[in-house]
């Protein structure tokens, strides 16, 4: 008889009860929520950054977040990895609600392996991305990671490939939002670049393909992380859509953006209650916009006057400021607004402005957001730098985006609209549904003075008083071809309206176009000039 068999039955270890199992589960869950310990959390706070769960609490409705694979651990060996297997593997994934609507998310935990991506980490992200697309719900990534996990080698790189492929597959199907709350270096930076919107926070977030050490080794240049790829840098390059001073404000605006987007491409954007009378007269417009086409004004004041409660969300406000792209509501319905900005470069279209507006038009079209285009454009920016930089190709991006857009499109010409820039800014000839003009509009191949200089060049040079001859011919050209009703007489605008009626006209136009049906193309896809 063995010692165990000789022991009285009462001394035999009892199998765990259900209560024991539940207590063990609670302990394990507490371990997950506690994270890697106070030391790592203190280091995170020393960088003036929130922890991953604090961020998720700010992003989602209280108590709504449901975590997936919280107990997942990596299975790598070597380099001491087998001795360090914390739960979550450095990324928290799941779903919750924002204003009651389902949203999926993944968030790096910099406290665990610096938020670096390994095999298990990547598989968690892949799973939540697949779920978001299958469920038809927005996907938000809270990025705070050091890139590929070197100890796991090529499997980490393959993990990024899977993320990129899913970003592209979901593009235009569900909204994808990247929130940069820490470093994002190397190939990792391509995932945010593939998403629809990128948020960055000053001082704590950076993005670059090669870091300062590599830059110094290759070029000899010494540069800081922020100077190389900080929030303000990418606010100016167009990589960052929005830039903020702190995480709390940033995440509040992520919630606000989600409130203006549909869950997926087969759904209309959410409609909000509107206490702002759509029939109200916009009297301030008569003062805001000078009749003289050479005088400057801020088109953002015009936008604020016509949208609900004067509220709008401007995208890329630090990049290509000569064109304004904004999301707003008119009569409670979300609209995308593209407007030339006369106070910056007189509102001309150049390479950055064309790219910015084209991207915005495509985004609105993908997510069923009607487009309102406010036109006050003197043309494309001339010059060798623009021509050598490919203004023809870049300007064609905006032209292509408008021509391909199937959402309701309404154009309002405020003042000047000259040359090819008039055509590109959603003119009737490229398919806008309704076009209106203020009585200050000037639609022409070019300004009256420039046209007179071309047409009557010899006559003006031969005149005894060239200045007087130029003025007379300019006045003649303006009265014949550039007067406010010339385009209306030829059906190129639907009506010339009182500026004070702009809000009402837009609301009524968008309402009647809400059931617009676009023909379905049988082609695989177009070939835009990207």
TrEMBL record:
Residues 16-273 form the CoA carboxyltransferase N-terminal domain. Pfam families: Carboxyl_trans. Gene3D superfamilies: 2-enoyl-CoA Hydratase, Chain A, domain 1. One of its GO terms (molecular function) is propionyl-CoA carboxylase activity. GO terms for cellular component: acetyl-CoA carboxylase complex. It comes from the Bacteria. Residues 277-525 form the CoA carboxyltransferase C-terminal domain. InterPro entries: AccD/PCCB (IPR051047), AcCoA_carboxyl_beta (IPR034733), ClpP/crotonase-like_dom_sf (IPR029045), COA_CT_C (IPR011763), COA_CT_N (IPR011762). Signal peptide: none annotated. This is Acyl-CoA carboxylase subunit beta.
